[in-house]
Design a protein that fits this description.
The chain is an alpha/beta fold and 98 residues long. It has helices spanning 9-20, 31-37, 59-68, 82-97, and strands at residues 2-4, 27-29, 53-56, 71-74. It is globular and about 35 Å long.
Amino acid sequence: MLAATGSLLLRSLGWSVFWLYGLPLDGVVNQAWHTRDVRVRAMKYPPRYGIDLLIDDSHGVRIEGERHGFRTLVVDPTGPEWTEKVKAHILLLAENAA
């Protein structure tokens, strides 16, 4: 799994936070890299980095995913069991790909 974020904080803290929740990351994309690399008019564009699923707390990102053709999962990070929702969605995608 690869995380994309606009937050500079994730660069330093996010790896361990996701790992503690049982969600290992392969890499992180911050807003500065996204602004430099992406030519699509979108807040986030995960296909540029080979990201199969963008997990975010913004319904606006979900709308952009529909508009630009990438998968999104909207979660409430303060909600109960959000990590289970993420894991279940990833497993479902893997099963459908097989």
